[in-house]
Amino acid sequence: MNVPLERILYVDLAQRTTWAVNRPELFAKYLGGTGIASKLLLEECPRKVDPFSPNVPIILATGPLVGLFPCIAKGVAMFKSPLTGNLGESHAGGHFSTALRLAGYGAVVIKGASERPVTLRIDNGNSLVEYASSLWGLSPMEVEIALKPPNGEGTHSVLSIGRAGENLVYYSGAIVDRYHHFGRLGLGAVMGSKKLKAIQVHGTGQVPLARPTEFKATYDEAYHRVVESDLMKKYHNFGTPANVLELNALRALPSRNFSKAVYDKAEEVSGEQFAEELLERKISCPGCPIACVHLGGLRTSFAPEHERGRKEIYEEMELVPYNYEPIFALGINLDVSDRKAVLRLISRCESLGLDAIMAGAVLGWATEALEKSSITTNDTLGLRPVWGDDETYLKMIENICEVRNPFYVKLAQGVAAAAEKYGGKDFAVSLGKNSPAGYFTGYGFVVGTLVGARHSHLSNAGYHIDQVALTKTVSPDEMVKFLIEEEDWLNIMNSLVACYFSRNVYDKQSVIRALQAIGIARTEQELMKLGKEIFHNLYEFKLREGFDLSKETVPRRLMEIESPAGCLDPKVMQRMIAQYVKIRREEGLTEAPQEKRLMDLLTPK
Fold it and tell me: In which element (H, E) is residue 325 found?
């Protein structure tokens, strides 16, 4: 069965019905992934709707190069985020995107809400919404074991939520194939509001090749760049945890809730030390030879009081995925320097389906809020979080996911909501209501995170231009130009659903050749124009749902600590944001924030 990329599967959970629609013109223009999802979100999501309304769509999309080229296997999820109140966009690896493509679909649009827990099963051209009350309350791993066949023809994938999603924690995610994540912006909570516990996909189709000979040459070129150059060597050797020592050497590694930009125990939680002591396996997404997903072994004893002789006989091994961001958020940011303790915290977030970066942010804020008497132990249900106390943090994570009292309700809504209720905004590290990643490199990182459509460091790689600025002079205007061009291009990469780690493998000319090899002719100018249009689609949704850049603030904390560029000057950031808005408005964005209010944006309160 050949599977051209033009069919969209529509699902109504309330009626438990599904149907397919062919939209070849949509895929011909927007390619796939983020491009397709941005257009479908504008079409399908009612204006100013509550993120937990049954009418809110969940859009899942794959791309035209999936199943064909190495390192291109991401899936894109788009929805209205309960965390930010506007755009929710998330990307996940694993088998999901490939299975969806081989099942014959380029995208899925899920609307409605079930009264009882359900799963969505997509099996090639057949799809079914099934009741699944027995799965409610289970961890994502338990759901995968229940739903995924041990073997069989084709490609299988399971996407599921944990208790955090069931209880509508605003930053709960969906776990894909045990070790991958649709994280950050609350897809798990949106699924929980619809009583959608899991999606299982099975595909056995084949992707047609328009130009087999040209394709082989282009594939070989990409494959050799992946495996025979140094472009992706870092990701295989240590994975992103290699960033720990690199950032610490730059004095750009935030610790203790961003109160310092260096960590004196960085060596203890470095990628090198994790690999030396805890690494058990490395795994890859389909068609990728890199194996960037590093799994640490966490040994637990079943009944140590009864064990005799060789201890390892009685120990259970849990494999926990670790990378830089959860090591930063749940380790360095909380001053937890014991590697096994960091793995335990990551494991707890995995089993609950909780985004690790925001979990670390709210725990860091709560620790400092208790120190500063913004909250009391009456709020925390008797718990007293202090830096490095992983046992207390584990209990607080459980309380957050169970939303056990009004304080934990606010923690479950994110660090900005908690600070709005209890105070401590100065040290509530949040940009656009999302918690930033662990790169305190300078102006590009902070401004880029704030203005990016997803409020993510991966929206426009601002940390990269900051590092360039350490070796040569880069003006604020040049930084803004980089942020704009980078985000526009990344919208193309995300429409192809290419792995972000492969961005240096698939430069613009390589992407053009890859598309030509499957019969899609695009010039560099056409691709950049499309990337810009996709950006405006995303921002159109943000603005219509109430996002106003001029009302967003940078917390004082981020102007108090010294980055590699020195302490950040609010006036420089004001000028950068004003220039960014000016350029984007000239591109045709009609509902841009009022420029006259921008000069007040970063004034410390």
Answer: helix 324-330
